[in-house]
Amino acid sequence: MKPMHVLLDPALKKPIFQQIADHIENQIVSGELAAGSKLPTERFLASSLRVHRTTVTKAYDELRANGFIVSKQGSGNYVRGDLWEMPGSSSWRQYIQSGALRPTLPMMQQLRDFSQDPHYINFADGELAEELLPNTMLSELLRQYPLNRWLGYSNHLGELYLRQTLSKHLQDEYGIKAAPDQILVTSGSQQSLHLITQSLLSYGDCVGIEGPSYFYAQPLFQSAGIRLIRLPSDEEGILPEAVSDLHKRYRLKMLILTPTYHNPTGTVLPLSRRLRLLELSRALNIPIVEDDVYGPIRLDGAPPPPPLNVLSSADNVTLYLGSLSKTAASGIRLGWIVGAVPVIERLADVKQQVDFGASTLLQQIADVFFTSGAWGEHLSRIRSEVTRNRDTMAEALRTYCGDDLEWNLPQGGFHFWCKVKGEVRDSELFEQAIRQQVIYVPGSLYGAEQGHIRLSYSRVNRDEIVEGIRRLGETLRKLAKNS
Ligand SMILES: Cc1ncc(COP(=O)(O)O)c(C=O)c1O
Questions:
Q1: Which of 43, 219, 257, 423 would you label with 286, given CA atoms 20 to 30 Å apart?
Q2: Atom of ligand 1 nearest to the CA of 190
């Protein structure tokens, strides 16, 4: 009988029998355990998981009570044979394995689960810690400003009042000139990227991206049949000259870039490279999507060069993406795309087909947030808190990981991008860190070569930073000794 691997965590509030039952239930639902298949005997499973036999009995009782398994007298426990059968159709498993979007990679799914568990020190998520979210500020604002605007379906571009507010905000904060009809309100930059794949690109198109780059965007493009071509880069970002060579080979349809506080590397593309890139983009007729979600998160140090959008405003070769996720709260799900009117109209038309436009409630909240001046006040607080977190992590890295990791001090954004000095496999380090209850994002998920890790300092408090980096240092040393 094959052993069953169940990751049991005694530190969780959830009892062990329930962890076993949940694991088996997930395997049944995902189809990994086929309908009608035999489960391990209670004795076998108990000994392979090193738990008492009654714990497994209780887990099986739970699964039986919930209708997932049946017992056959004298023969053992089986996954119910009829679980996924629909009258006259085949099993759900077939459906689950089809559909247009690819499933998230298993390591990302694992990270998604661990990041919900408060027992783990979370260096994985690029979002703000609970205490940095603007709950109090928003409740106060909502007392002062009634949400008395239109709550029906939104204008397909987004409500005019918010687009007017965004137009002013983008001009004041970044020098971006965008009339309200050049702005589409979306449910965040992830949706903006999705809309671009669905509205402006076709199956088989080649798109240039930074390598490594933002991981949730990659399956999105691959699912749409778009070939991602990696643009060579150094510690200052991509090398513009490579674009012409790659264009000759692949006929690049678009570039998708994060020139400011790149995720995961934190690089800031210098002004000279931005200007050269724009020259090439015009000459070769390749539009650029500029994903600027981290742009406002400047820590200390010099301001970054202006966005590509500002440097190219006369000819509209860019689509500029922004969002409230990193400056306010990732759960608000509100973003924007700025571009030429016909392109914005096309994207808005597709957005309407997909979800009938952005939430009118959230649009009112976002509007109040910007017009009341709360956004600026909130951003100053975030910048100074996140800078302190970054400095705490830098100090902890020097103390505990100085011999094992290399990194650059990020000038903005939420992450350190580190390289392991010795040889280590990403999956091994990741597993060992999980055992120490520390999670981070392995570089291979961004398409980086083995031995890179992204450590986020925004979601954790400073005590967690010190403790998590200490555990990571210990893990790295242990692995180095064993290699
Ligand atoms: C580079 C980049 N683009 C887009 C997104 C998605 O942002 P949003 O929450 O606005 O959808 C993220 C999220 O981390 C990101 O890092």
A1: 219
A2: 11
389 ligand 1 Cβ < 6 A: no
322 lines ligand 1 (CB under 6 A): no
**Number of structural domains the chain divides into:** 3
- Spacing, Cα 338 to ligand 1 middle (Å): 16
pLDDT, tens only, 61-102: 999 888 888 888 888 999 987 765 444 445 666 777 788 888
As a whole number, the mean pLDDT across the chain is: 92
Distance from residue 62's CA to the centre of ligand 1 (Å): 39
For residue 119, what are the CA distances in angstroms to 12, 13, 48?
7, 10, 25
E-assigned strands of 283-426?
A: 288-291, 318-323, 335-338, 405-407, 415-420
* Secondary structure letter of residue 315 according to DSSP: T
Count how many residues are written for the chain. 483
Span 255-294, pLDDT tens digits: 999 999 999 999 999 999 999 999 999 999 999 999 999 9
The answer to whether residues 208 and 289 belong to one domain is yes
Distance 189 CA to ligand 1 centre (A): 5
Residue 9 lies in a domain: no
| CATH code where residue 205 lies | 3.40.640.10
pLDDT (tens digit per residue) in 410-438: 999 999 999 999 988 898 999 999 999 99
pLDDT of residue 435: 93
Say what the pLDDT of residue 73 is: 85
Give domain status of residue 303, yes or no. yes
41: nearest Cα among 72, 7, 84: 72
Q: What is the whole-number distance in angstroms between the Cα of residue 156 and the centre of ligand 1?
A: 22
